[in-house]
Amino acid sequence: MSEVFNQENAAFNLSKTAEIYLSQGKLDAAYATCLKALEILPNCGEIHNTLGNIMQKMGKLESAKNCYLKAIEENHNLAESYANLGSISARQKQWEQAIKYYEKAISIKPNFAGFYRNLAKICQCLGKEHLVTEYRYQALILEPTLATAKESLNLGNKLLELGKLEEAIACYNQAIKLDKELSAAYNKLGNTVIQKGELDRAITVYRQGIKIRPNNPRLHFNLGEALTQKQQYQQATIFYNRAIELNPNNHLFYIKLGEALQKQGLLEEAIACLIGALQIKADHRDTYFKIAELLEQQKYLSAAVKCKVHKQLSKDILEKFCKLTGDWEVTSNSINTINLIKIHPPNQIDLLPSQNIEKKLHPNFQIKLVELAEEFIAIVPEARVWADQLNSVVITSDNKVVKDMSSGNGGLIISSSKLPPVHKLKGTVAFLSVKFGGGGYYHWMFDMVARISLLYQSSIDILSIDKFIVNKIQTRFHQETIKKLGIPQNKIIESCNYPHIQTDRLIVPSIPVNSGFRTTKWACESLKNIFLSQQISSSSLYPERIYISRSRALKRRVVNEEAVVNLLEKFGFQTIILESFSIEEQALYLANAVVVIAPHGAGLTNILFCNPGTKIIEFFAPEYILVCYWLISNICGLEHYHLIGEQFDDNFSGKPVNKDICVDLQKLLNLMKLAKII
Questions:
Q1: Domain stops at, among 292, 323, 354
Q2: Strands 492-494, 401-402: parallel, antiparallel or unpaired by DSSP?
Q3: pLDDT digits (tens, 9 = 90+) for 558-585
Q4: Nearest 10 degrees: CA dihedral of 197, 202, 203, 207?
Q5: Which SS3 state, helix, strand or coil, does residue 534 take?
Q6: What is the CATH number of the domain that holds 550?
Q7: Please, is 124 exposed, middle or buried when counting C-beta atoms within 10 Å of its C-beta (0-12, 13-18, 19+)?
């Protein structure tokens, strides 16, 4: 018995010596010593594991693998051997096998952090980010001191994304423990406990963070938010103000301060704060809605409607809250240095009524006459421009807004000290960006393409223009039109990327929207000339009766479209989805149509390609009725009819512009009879 014990002891001593040699990089000595140990104890799993480690260090992976397999054959509870097999499998990119080995190692030895860390690395290679996060969290819990404060913070963020609030909180607390000055950890911890409904705890966390990092604006802001949720508005105001003092360029800080002031009945101060937000982010739509609400409370009803519907602040509001004085706003014909090239004189259009089966016309269709302003090109020296989704502003060298060449709220721009730096361009630049002009087909065609055609109609050499500023180029039809107009891509500047530009010589086509309507006769004729061949012959390829579907749209769809289509097909209508075609193909479809039926939407822009006498039936939701396509019908000599859909979905809480349409089939039949379509 004593002899056996001595042999085992000798074998283990040899194994330990082999491990020492291995740590010293003496691989041959380690290997020889380990073999001697195995001669004494050939069935010892631990010694086979050591031999496997030596083989792996020598780069002999298959031999190492066999050693580890022999080790677990002799001792099923050798977690290290399973982990080592997992490591070799990972090196050989046998990922699923590697995971199984590590999971087995963890089942035997669940408190060893290294297994979780390695398993996290394997899952990362497989793109299993949720498992990466979970395994790293387990490693952090077992060995919290091995992670840095920022690693703990980042892990908390990942856990938060997975909805694991308690685990995230543990990570944020660990981050603070490791680095008491890590302000982001206090912010994240406070925000996370708020998600659990623990407002008082969050307030304590934010106050602790402020005590250590008093100049962190986000901590003050978040404390203001928590106090607002507790309806402690006066206290919240103090911290919102402090956040603004520390970072005066964050529009959200001003918005939240404005809301807190509104809750205290301080309406004037609230408006001032919200306008301060717009001086940082002038196209923040929700802020216009909030200002409109405050104006309504003060009984400034006309200004409220203008703000809410058109995102336009009245001149007296701008002057009062932006501290604008004197002649800050001028017209192009009042400045001697601005050269005007007149293209089209002012005119007016007598409107024929849109017909329907109701006894009374909707107020929007009761307009009798449209006045259209003069169209011109303005050339402005040493000008500055600003453009976003709700504003396009031309500014003279002495900081005055040229109002008939601008759209939106120029007063916000010239009064702001918080705009991004000016991007300077040399040479001649055409400024085409306009309010609402960035994305949709209708706005693009009339606000961009038609105005570019004005440049061609002028005496200006298009090749002399160095750059063209547009809102953005992001869709197929944007790219198609730019190519059709012969403008090289390298001459395009997107104002969504460069909103603030100064140039030596600015060329600006006039903006029809300033007269109330974007659509003009010259614009329709120009678009026809650009996209529609002069030799159009009727073809059986293009149906005479078409229904334009919005089934691919996200809003204003016909909810009972299948029934509508089934009905229309009985009378020879063909359904088309215009997004499937190029603009020239869309133009040909509409040019050959005799009857067009469609829900209100951008596809109806293409009725400008129709021949005079074409009949148009337009569907509307009762909550959202715009008359732009009625105006096009008048300009192009088309017969316009409209059908207002039925009320449905009383629980709809979205914006009216997004409401779908429900068509009464009997009313549609009656309207088609009125139009002599059937």
A1: 323
A2: unpaired
A3: 999 999 999 999 999 999 999 999 999 9
A4: 180
A5: coil
A6: 3.40.50
A7: middle
